[in-house]
Structure formats: structure tokens, C-alpha cells
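Standup notes, structure subgroup. Blocker cleared on the zinc ion input:
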Amino acid sequence: MSTTTTSTKSARTSTKWDVEYQTIRRQKLFSNTPRDHTAFPLLHAAVKPHVDSFNALFDQGLIDEALKDIGTHSVTDGDARERNARTPRNTLDLRVKEVLLDKSYLPSTNKDSLAREIFPAECRERGVTYRGKLRARLQYRVNANDWKEVVREIGSLPIMLRSNRCHLEALPPADMVRRKEESEELGGYFIVNGNEKLIRMLITPKRNYPMATLRPSFEKRGATYSKFGIIIRSVRPDQSSVTNTLHYITDGNVSFRFSWRKSEYLLPVVMLLKALVETNDHEIAQGIIGASNSSHPPSSFVSDRVELLLRTYKAYGLKTKKQTLEYLGAKFRPVLLTPVTLSDEETGAELLRRVILPHLGNINVSAAQNNDKFQLILFSIRKLYALAAGDCAPDNPDAVSNQEVLLGPFLYGMILKESIHNWLLSIGYQAREWIRTRSPPSFTDTKFEGEFLPKIVRKTNENIAQRLEYFLSTGNLVSETGLDQSQTSGYTVMAEKINFYRFISHFRCIHRGSFFAQLKTTTVRKLLPESWGFLCPVHTPDGSPCGLLNHLSHQCVVQTHNVDASGVEAALSRLGMTKRSARSVEDGLSIQLDGRVLGHMSVKRAREAAQLLRHWKVRDEKRIPKELEIGFVPTSNGGLYPGLYMFSGPARMIRPVKYIPADKVDFVGPFEQQYMTIACTETDIIPNLTTHIEYKPTNILSILANMTPFSDFNQSPRNMYQCQMSKQAMGTPSSNMMMRADNKAYLLQTGQTPVVRPPLYNEYGLDNFPNGMNAVVAVISYTGYDMDDAMIINKSSHERGFGDGVIYKTKFYDLAEKTGTGGRASRSKTEIKSMFGFADTDTNVPSDVLFHIEEDGLPKIGARVQEGSIIAAYHTVMFDPSTNSLRNLDGQTHYLKYKDSEPGYIDQIRLLGSETGDTPLQCISIKYRIPRRPIIGDKFSSRHGQKGVCSMLWPSESMPFSESGIQPDVIINPHAFPSRMTIGMFIESLAGKAGALHGLAQDSTPFSFDETHTAGDFFGDQLLQAGYNFYGNEPMYSGITGREFAADIYLGVVYYQRLRHMVSDKFQVRTTGPVNAVTGQPIKGRSKGGGVRVGEMERDSLIAHGCAYLLQDRLMDCSDKQRAWVCRDCGSFLSVQMVPNPYNALTGRRTVSVAGAGGSVPPSGIVRCRTCAREAGWEDSKLRVWADGEGKEFVGGENTTVVNVPGVLRYLDVELAAMGVRTTFTVD
Amino acid sequence: MSQREAYQFPSSSGGAGTGYAGYDTATGPKVTYICGECSAKVPLEKEDKVRCPSCGHRVLYKERTKR
Ligand SMILES: [Zn+2]
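Run returned:
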């Protein structure tokens, strides 16, 4: 038991935790919240990728990089159709120099508030977005004069909580509580319209690495295309990316593909090489084949193809770099939309800057940077030929080693970048529109300066931040360029707080991309060994997202910032790296850092260099950063393409392991990990081979998977189920429930700390959010109510509060919404149409309303409400300018009603003002509390994927009891175990029992027991010492007869979760109710009072059982049964008609012509078939003659009758008749 | 459950079944609320702006009835 915290104020809050309960320490943390820092740093580390990457937008200058990449947008005046560059023109240059994001503050129009900050809690309560003002420093100039500058407000940008633009950024827990937050508020999400939203992490291809790809779809691109390709996802410093692809053409040629604004373009690769640097064919050939001085003979496969490559390019007749650039510029000018004043050569260079391997230079590209691009393309061609020749294997795009993380905030920054770019374009467009009205149309117009702001900039849509708010609230990516992403929706998710496990999992969740969800193959879902330590093998849902929606292992971190890796090149140079490549890969292994070819080395030297680099890296020497990934791919027989690939950039997954020689931490990435020897435990170490060892074997598991006790004893799918179910448990979502206004929140009233838990439970501070209860569980078949995973709960336990929970529902009532004056925006007094409260002159307010509603028109706190209860009164008002007040004219009070079917209690009422603080009451939110004690049909589960439904609340006196008088809280059926093999649950039961008897917290970390030192012995001994049976069995007595059972019963303590699936939300029953207007059949949907469908399979089984009357009841009587007249002779529903009553009901006289008289005619009750009748003649007996509505007389058609038919049958009949199809029914 | 059903809402007017003629129209009733920020009692009239007069906070809670 640790007693590291002392009550003295000076002591720093300890962050060391063990497995013990630490009740006093936790109590102190609650009553005396730390003022220095959190006690649970691990919890905060879990959301770090989100927060840090948001911080990087402004701290690391990602936005500045983006602005530089956008560059200057130039527009020219004069005739747009005139293509001659020499025509004199004036140029307007536009650029955004800086973007500033403020914290969230009140608008200046609000003069009343002293505290100007808007804190997140207020946004949650008021249902608004937590955002700060975004400003842009817009600069413009005409004809290269001095830049002029204006600062424009470009909307309010949603801010990530606890980021560097959030008021909560560095607040210690004590201040967090003061700001109405959770003491351990994590941040990492946004608040949009009161909802907590986060951008989920996505898997993307590894950046700046030429990936050898086999893709059959490449063959569909054209006649000569092969399936071979090299794909490079090149990432600019602002984290936006472009994908460049090299295609292998079957004749040996290589074409280069890129996309620009969603259109694809292809170039001969040699053209690109010649455009990048001043080069010649010899240099290109040597770059691909290898330097000619090496002893190795050139491979004929490669040299033949290089020859072809260069020979076919001759057709273009472009020799110099300038010629090539001009050619490219002329072709791509309409695509890039460069101004007329820019020369073809410059336009060509602009193309290279923007889309060709921009990670090697995208701003003021130097000759050296272009050479880097040149070298990387040469390397890619060489790798492509190796792939085509079968010398190397393709890189697996589904393995984590070739993947990285797309961090949400980086995407957020990309959208902001594109929006700003579009804004510049639209200013340019408006500027051209403006000069059209001038004569002469010129930017040098004297009025231009004065009208630039009001007439040009203001005409553009300046609310740029709104696009990002839209993105967050819908998750849809609306983009002209597509941002190099493969999906357009599903980027954001609601950070649901069903319980804390669910909440924290959202931040560790990583999705493969919705594109892969539609894929029919299962290869992308496979669990590959490359994922070891990075993605949790257990924590993925079963069903459709299985394997696509993964969770990070709890020790895996995502790098979010750039590190200084400048020492790498210098160190390698000293180790004998040369710039020249060699013919054989063994002699000239390519050495790359972040996708830049540094040089070449022989394999032997490179291997040594990699080891040395690692040595320096771990020891923090020679400016080699700890985060550097050193992926040494050795030469092999058809394995991955060899090389020494190093990565230092952000968005990589890395994880700490111990470097054995130095006994220091080393951060390992997934690419290098596949070539490393990392021992899992001490016994795995192979001398002279193993370099690293895991700190803990459990590091591969996610936070939730780590919480499953003794998960190594369970069959693995059960652990997956548990990860799913712990996220559905009713628990403690947060400790500031009264400050939150969730639409729906579940709360377990009687949460406990589990007796059996790993030490990580404390390190993650999960005692702040209990998720279940310790229950005494007997495994026995006792009552007969325990079939099929049913469980019996002791009625007395239930009465003591076992599983007691409540649901909080918050509903917003906005009067402005009702009267249609728009959302919750601020409104002036004159626009207000209705107000809460009773109308002044209303004299008939029912007394029962007064009982519920107080004089302000709002209910009392604590009032019980049920369906139809009145919960607020309001009345319409008009603004009276004479008295400057709002007056009610009609004297009528209207009421708002409680619509849910389940009774609840009014827990809180909030009166919501506006940001400007100047509007009368228009909007309230009411929080209802709905008690949910466990009832029969509610779902429970242990932590081993053993879910069950409560089938009975068994009276305490009839429960079995043990010799020490213990009664179980829960009884489960022994049949739950043999097929599921959840041995972990037995161990937990043993450990829990021993822990409860001795007052111990039991460590349940997986992989801590083995064959010689078994869990059964360990906990069995503890039980023996407490005077119990070693095996956990006990003699028990029947609660009904009092006699001892023939068998001993397995009795222990197991932690049970109450799941949120409750019958009260599920039960559905109806006899009659709402029906579909067309068919007359019952509608579906529980919420609408619909029915449960008796489908075809149900119908079949009812037929098989011979339940004819039941079928008739379901499909006819309770559905769309109709009585319909039909003609027996012609078998038609449509030809029968009701004969109108020929006698006037009032006068008793016969009416001559019914239609002429007008009005409705009462039916006579006589039905005749019109088609079977003939017109009456003079010879017909008056008794047989009948008249239709027009007074025409007929004889016959009397053979009609009433039948019961389904309503849809008649509908079908009518529809068929409309199509000219006649149906005939035979009536028996 | 029996306990809950037996709960009676406390009522000041006793038998208020004789109809109702609205609250005092001239000044309006003053119902007090609690400021969400400084916990001050905020008396709010019908047309008053929704904000705390002492700190300017914009969320007010309705007070629990003590009658
Ligand atoms: Zn206040």
C-alpha cells in the first residue's frame, strides 16, 4: 500500500500507482483536487495524438507552411482571351500572410460580463459550438508595388479542447473542476452544437516511401498497362499530400501519373527527369542501372528497358531542361490556371513544385531539391523494374509497416488550407468582376484602392471557418481537390459518453477507411504480425467493421511533431556513404531519410551503420533523435526491395521497447520492427541476436483489453466480446454529470471498484468511473429460470441497489424555433413572438396545470412527469413600441408536453441566454431523470464475454446458501462454460473470493502465471488460508428445502457489468395502432407504435405448426383486413356498386334524378354488379330494376357477396386495372 | 414504488381549483434562479435578459422548490 501522497500542500501529486485500492489516497484526490498536475498521466497520454497534432497546426507552423504552399495568387486585367504574354497588363497579387486563431471569447457587443472567456462547459450546456475567432492577414499589391495589408475576420473556428487555443490547456485538476469540467478532462475533441465530436484517426499509406504495388486494376487503365506500379504518397511540410504513381508499361516503358483537382494526368517519366535537372541520357541510364565502374555486369532486363525508355522519349525532341519545362508549361497552363504573365517555363516549374514529389521541396524549390526529386524518381524506376522482373516482392499495403496515421487535426488544417486558397481565388474573381465595370478596365484605376475592401473582398464568402464547423458536425469532406483522400464522409464521430470506457476508446480508435468496408475480400481485415504492439489484436468489433476498426495498443504513441534528424546525414557520410549508385544492390544499397536519397552504401556497411545509428539514437548522441525509425531491409531472395529507409516525420506509430545493450528506452516503428528481434519475455532472448525486449507483454493490448482480468485464460473471441460489452455497460460516464446536458446519459448508481483488476486500472484512474459491481456468483442450475444464458438475481441484492441505474435525458425547448425566427441566434426584442409563462389575461388555466407549473411557466424541480404531462407554459407576444414592452394580446396560454412514454422526474432546468446576453428567456433545457432499476429482461455481463439476461428476481429466502451463510447475488447456469471456455472467469471468481475474504486487491494482469506457477494454486492457497475449499467449491443448501445439495457449488466473487440494453427500451407490443395510409397494414418502428413483422420465415414455421388461426390473426385480423363486396359471377371487386337509396329520407318520396339533385345520397344497402347487369327495358319487373347514381335503370347483377380480404389485395387489383390487367376471383 | 406514488406535491394555495386569473400583471412575479457561474440568486422578471447581474453568466438554473 503506497502512502506517497501526504496532506502537506507542498508535496507534489504522486503519479505512481499500484494494484491496491488506495481508498484514502483517492478520497484525498477527490476532496483536495490536485493543484499541480494530474495524478493519472497515462490517461492524458492516451489522447495526446489528438491534442498535440492540433497544437502542431499553430505551434509547429503547419498553417504557415500551408500559406506558403498556397503562395501568391495573381490575376491580370485585360482581355482574358488574349493569350499573348507580351501584351502589357497590370497584375494584382493576393496572398494570405498569416492566420490567427483566438481563444473563445464573448463578442464585444456583450458589455455586461466581467469574465470574457467562454468555457467549454457553457457550450455544452447551451448547445452551441466552442469556437474562437479566426482572422487572416490578407495582403495585396498591384504590379509588384509594396504589399498592402488588411486583417479580415474569417469566421469562428471550432477549437479542440485542451489544445493551445483552449482555455483549459494547462489547467490542473483543481481548476478543471472550477471550470465545471471533469477533474481529469482529457480534451482532444470539439464541441459542435453542444455535441462532443472528434475526428477519427485513419490509416493511410506510409508517406514518402516508394511502395511497390501489384494492382490488377492498373491493367484496366490502358491496353499496354501492367499491374506493376510504384506508389509514393508524398507529404508536404503542411501535412497535405499528393500521390504520385509510376506505371510499368508492358513494353518496358514507365509512365508517371499524378492527379490535380480530381483529374488524372500522365507523363513520360523521362520528361519529368529532364525537367527536374539539366541531365543527359547517360546520367539517367547510370542512375537506373548503376554506375558503370562497378564490377558487376549490368542486368540485361534493366538495361534493355532503360534503352527503350530513352529511345522512345526521343520522339518528343526535347533536349534541355528549359525546353522540357516550356513544353510542360504550355500543356499544363490551362490546368494550373496560371496568369498570362507567367512564362511557360515558370508554369512548368510551378507544376513540378506543386505536384511532383513535393515532400522534397514545395516552396522556392532549389536546384538541390530538384535533384533530390530526380534521384528519388530514379530509385523508384529501379525498384519498379525489380518488381516487374520479380526480383523483389510487393509491399503489402495492408500491413501496418507500410501505413501511418492520418491525424484528424492535420486533415482539419488541410481543409482550412483549401478554404483559404479558394477564398483567394474568389477575391481574384471578384476583382476581375469589379474592373469590368470600369473604363478602362484596369487594376491601376484610382478607385481600386478605396473599393478593394467594400466592393471586392466583402463580396466573397468570408466565413471560411463555417466550412470546418460543417465538416465537424457532418463528417463530410467537401473539397475540390479531394485532399488525396479516398473517402468523402465518415470522418467525424460523436464521442459518446455511455461510460468512460466507451469515451476513451474513441480516442484510441483507428479506422482503415470506409472505402475498405465495401471490399468483398477479407485481406484488409486480417490480423498481421506487423501490427504487433501497435494495434490491439483483441479490441476490434465483431461483425461488419471487424478488422477495419482497430484500437491502438495502450503503449503505442503517434508522433505528432517534426524531430531534428539533421545529424543522420552527417553521421552516415562519415560511415562511408557515397553519392554514386552501383549496379548490384549489394554494393549500392539506397539510403533514404524521409523519402530523400542520401546516398549509397554496401549492404555490409549499411548493416553496421544501422546498428551504430541505433546505438547513437538510444543514447541521444550525434543529434540522432530517439523517434528516428531505422528500417534496414537486407538483400534477400525475392523479399522486399532492400535499402536503409529512415523515417523521422510525424503521423508514424511508435512504441517504447527496451534496448538491451544500453538498458534504455528505444522507440520502435512498425517499418523497422519487421526486421528487428524483440524478445517478449526474458526467456525469449537469444544471445547475440536479440537486441530489444518488451517492457511488458501486455503492452500489445489496448486500454480496454488490458482491463479484462486473466484474459490469457480465455478463448480469444470472448475477450473481443468483452471489449465490446465494456463499452455498452451502464457505468459512470463522468464525474461532472450535473454540468452536462447530454441528450441521453446512463448512470450506474452503485458502481464499485473491482476486487480483481490489473495495476493499469489505477494508472488510468478508472476508479473515477466505476463500470460495474462485484457480485457473489454461484454457478448452479437451481431454479429452471436459468436456461440459455438467463441469470437469476437475488431479490434482496436488487433491493440493496444491485445494478440500480438511471437515465438522464436532456431536451431543449426553444420558443424561437417554434415561431420560426431561426435557431438559437441572438434576437432583438422586437422580433420575439412568444415567451414562457402564462398569458396575463388567461382566466382558464386548469388547476392541475398550476399544480405542476410555477408562475414562470416552468415546472418544479423534482416533479414527476409522465406521457402527456404539461412541462411548460408559453404565450404569444407582440412588441408594443408605445410602452417598449412585449404584450400578450390573445389571452391564451399554450403548453409544452412531455412526450416520452416512460415516467421520469425533472432533475434540472436550465435557462439559456445568448452569447450577447441581451435577450429575454427564449430557450430552456430540461434534464429528466428516469429511474431504471434492473427488471426482468435487462442485460448483464461478466468481464469475460459472458452476457446474460435477468430472468427472475428470486426471493432471498429461497436462494441457496453456503455453510458460512453466504447467499449469491447472481446465479448462472453451468452450461455457460463448456463451449465458451472462459476459464478467466473461473479464475476471477477464485481471485475475487480470496480477495474479498482477505481484503486484498487482486492483480489480474494477463501472462503473469505459467505452468509451474499456476493461478489456481496461487488463489487456491489464499482460499485455504481463509478456511475455504482450495478449488472454490462449497457445500450449499437449498433455500427451499434446506437440504444440502449433492454436489458442491462453485461460488465466488465476479465483477458484473449492467449493459445498457434494457427491456424498457426494447419491448414492443400492439394489437391495433397506426397503419400505413396506402396499404392499411401496420407500420413498423417501436417509437411509432408499430408492430413486429411476421415475415416469410415466421409464416413458414406457423404453417408448419398448423397454426392456421394464429396466421389468420396475424396476417389478416390484426393487419389490413377489409370487408369487400365482390361479384360472384364475374369475380370482380371493381364492378360492384352500392345502389343509391331511391327514396329521400326526409320526404319519403322517390327522387327522380339523384345526380341532378346534388349532394350526397344515402346508400340503400343493396349492392349490384354493374358489368353483370343489363339496362332495364319496359318488360322488366319493377321489383328487379335498380338505378345507379345517375338514375339509369338496370336489371341483374344481383349475385354479389361480402368477403374478407387483405386491403392490399384490393389495392393491387386497382393498380392492375389501371394497367389494363383484369383479375377474376372465384368465390366459393 | 409505493413511496413514490404516495408523494404529494407541496402546494401553497391548498385548494386551487377555483380558476386562475394570472399572476400580478403590473410588475410580474419574481422567480429566483441560480447563476451557473457564481451561484448568485438571480431574480428574473418576464422580459429580463437571461444573464446573471453580478457576473454576466448566461446559463441560469432553476432553484429547487423548498415549499
Ligand atoms: Zn453569476
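Discussed briefly. Chain A is about 25% helix and 25% strand.
Next: hand off to the docking folks.
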